[in-house]
Structures are given as C-alpha cells and as structure tokens.
Amino acid sequence: MLLHDLLAAPELRLTLLTGDERLDREIKGVLITDLPDPRRYLSGGELVLTGLMWRQSPDDSARFVDALAEAGVAALGAGDARLGTVPGDLVEACRARGLPLLEVPVEVSFGAVTELVGRRVAAAQAGDLRGALGRHRRIVAAVAEGAGLGELFTLVEAELGVTAAVVSACGAVVAGDLPQERAVRLARDYLAAVRLPVVVNRGGPFTLFAVGRSHRAAGWALVCRGEVDVEIGYELAACVAMERTRAEEGRRVERRLAEQLIALACAGGDLAELSARLRTCGIDPAEPYAVVTATASRRGAKEGPDPALLGGQVVEELLDRGVVAAAGADASVALVPLRGDTPWGDRAALAALLRARTAVLAGGLSSITVSAGLSGALTGAQAIRGGVEEAGHARRMAEARGGGVVTSDEIYTHALLLATVPGDVRSSFAERLLGPLFDYDRRHGAELVRTLGAFLDCTGSWNACAERLHVHVNTVRYRIRRVEELTGKDLSSMADRVDLFLALRAG
What we know:
Layout lengths: L2 H5 L7 E4 L10 E4 L13 E5 L8 H13 L3 E5 L8 H10 L3 E4 L5 H35 L4 H12 L3 E5 L4 E3 L4 H13 L5 E4 L3 E7 L8 E6 L4 H37 L4 H10 L7 E11 L14 H6 L7 E2 L4 E6 L9 H18 L3 E7 L3 E2 L4 H17 L3 E4 L6 H7 L2 H22 L3 H10 L4 H8 L3 H15 L6 H13 L1
Parallel strand pairs: 2-3, 3-4, 4-5, 14-16
Antiparallel strand pairs: 1-5, 6-7, 6-10, 8-9, 9-10, 11-13, 11-14, 11-15, 12-13
C-alpha cells in the first residue's frame, strides 16, 4: 500500500502536514507507540502512529523523529487527542528529516487506520502470491510441453526478470548467452565450489546452482546473473534438470546404435551393413570423421577408470550435445563428424577444443583424471576399426602421461611402443641402464644424465652439445666417456644409442 492510497481513504480524513514529495512510499505495516525511541520495534517501511505521550518539551520532537528516520519508517501519523493539534516543532522536525507527517483527527481511532492498512497490505500480498503462482505454472507448463532451454530462459527472463544460462563442467555453453571466456571461468568456479549455490564475481555477480545430481565432471551449472533468490534458482535448476533428463532419454537409442556400430566394425562386419549403420548414426560414409576415446578416473585409483564416469557423459560434454558416445570395454568411444556445421569444423580445431576443455576439468577437479585420444581424419565405414584402435593407443599414452589429450600424430614414434609397455617394465628398463649414472651424479654432483640427454638430442655432435650445455667440448668428451664406462654402452654404436635414448624416455 502506498502513502497516497492511505491519504485517499475518505473514511480516515487524514491530513498531510509535510512530505508531499514522498507520497509514493510503500507502507508495509503499522506500529502504534508512545515510546520516545521505538527503534528496537521497527524494521523499516512502517506507518508509525503516536498519541504524543512521549513529548514533554519541543526538543523531544527532534529526538523522536531522528529515531524514526534512522529506522527507515515510511511515515508518521500523529493524533490530536492529547494536545488538540500537532505541535509545530514536530512538523519542523519531520520536514527537516524528510519524513512524511500525517495528522489523525481526534474522532478517528488508530485501530481504524491499522485495520485499513492491514486489509490493503494483505490484499496486495495475496495478489503478489497469485501472480507468483501464475508465473510458476506458466514456466512449469512450458517445460512439461517440451520447451527447450532457450525458450525456457526467454520465458524466465520475461516472467521473473532473471537472466540465466547453463554451462558444462568443461566450460561449454549449453544454453543461454555467455561469452566463452566467461563461461570457462564460471565452470571453474562451479568445479571449485565447496557448496552450491554460490555467488561469484565475474564482471558482476553471478549465482551458480547445480543441475541435477550428476558427478561434477559431467555436471551442468545453472548460471544466473546477479544475486538470485535461492528458491527461484532451485526451481529453475529443477526445470533445467528435467529438460536434461528428457534429452538423455532420447539419446539412449542413439548411444545403443553407436555401440552396435562400433562393436560390429571391430568384429569385422559386412561393409554394406556398416555403411548403413554409419548413416543411421548421422555420418555419411563419404564425409570425414574422427574417433575420440576417453576415460575419467579417480586420481590414484588402482582399479582403473571409474565405471560411474564411463557411460559417455564426460566425452559427450567434452565435445558437443550433438555427438553421442558409446560405452566401450575400457573407454567411451565417439565418432565425431568433421564438417563445417560443427563447433570445430576440422580435426585440428577438434584437438584444440578437446585440450581446452580437458584443461578446465583438470584445473577444477584435482580428484579426477581425464584422458582422451584422437584418431586421424577417416572416411568410410571400413576405417572405423582402425580409427578406434588408433584413438585407443593415443588415449593409453595420455593415461601414461597422467591425463590430457594425445592425437594420433604423436603415437607413430617410439612413444607408441613405450605407451604399450607396462609401467613396471619401463621403470625396470630405465633403472637398469641409467641407475649407475644417477648414483654417480648424486655422489659427485655431476651432470652425466643431463649431458647424455643433450648429446643424444644433438645427434652425437660434441661441439653442439658443448654449446647447449655451456661447457668446454673436452668436458663433454670426459662426461660421455664416464657414461660409457658406467653403462657398458658404446655411444658410437647406433644400437647402444637407441637403448640409452629409450631408457631416458621410459624413465
């Protein structure tokens, strides 16, 4: 209820003595008091009614009005019953503090004013509640009728004035309008948050809510601009979770088709049937594609990748909602089209996107290791089997490195051989050849291991090695001679050079 509505009530016959420029103030309730300082009973927005029993001298008016103004009341109503009129010192005090002052005639009881204000405020609150319920019904109905996230956010902004978006844990914008750089920062905030919802400052306040109950590595964050009421945020997050669940139901069939295609290809199935199944999965046999395999495991776990994270969700979030991932024997596998209408377009851009998004996860979740492998560009159904094997080798190399993304470009070297050798075998091989060198370096403060690495990198050039290490060439000759004595290897022999090179890489 506004102050001018109260003055317009004919049955009260109130008179405004000062404050005509503040008639748009909202009255939230009524307090009747004759205490000289009633601040402890005020929360702001009240109409204070007083019979002036607190006034013993003109100076009391200023103290009383100061207390009301400090408490943020909407207006003061003074009764005529005690003095027959409102004293001028009270009018002046209210004018000085900008507090509207109403004169309540002696024949009007404070109870009548309180009752009228109570009815009006209750009616306004009921109207607000009806409006809120109506808005809630419209939003829920839109979701139930199949509205997408874009349509949902447009409706929420119109009905509630809340601007929202959804980002994945790896920094992809799932829905809404957010710059990519800000989405990545908000994803990191989401991953790092001890508890949600949380308010963060990213060029202004944003409130982050969790969507559903997915593991955070495959989760979504609802991002609301500003500090949003938590109840509104929870309801909106529930609507987003409902839409995600509905989309997931539709993707189950697509995942099953992808699993059947990959299983058939790896078993050497008929080419015509493979081509037909490839088309069913949304890839024309004549267009290029790549294979991505990925695992997500709990760091330090010895039992291998976490089965809860291998259903394809992580790899799908790393890519795009248009790509489905099949659950393979030891990793998620996806066939990714390389065409202009995708967010990546070509294989190089796809590799860059995978690296950027796995970096977001690695930076935000120290407990999870994501490893991905990317095959070369492929064409035709007959290439699926080789692509799955190629991407699998690359992924295993990524796992050996402790996570990240490895492409097929990196595996056709000695690194591929090392990646397929068990870790304990690699360690034993390196220790057997290089152990004496490390022991010598520790005892004598020498740099035999470093010198060996530089010598091999310089293809056995004494001068180039000396220049790289900033030492005299005779120093290099002496150190390499000690390396040969301690290892029993001849560095003029290609076979022995290869052994030592592999030992350095394996270690």
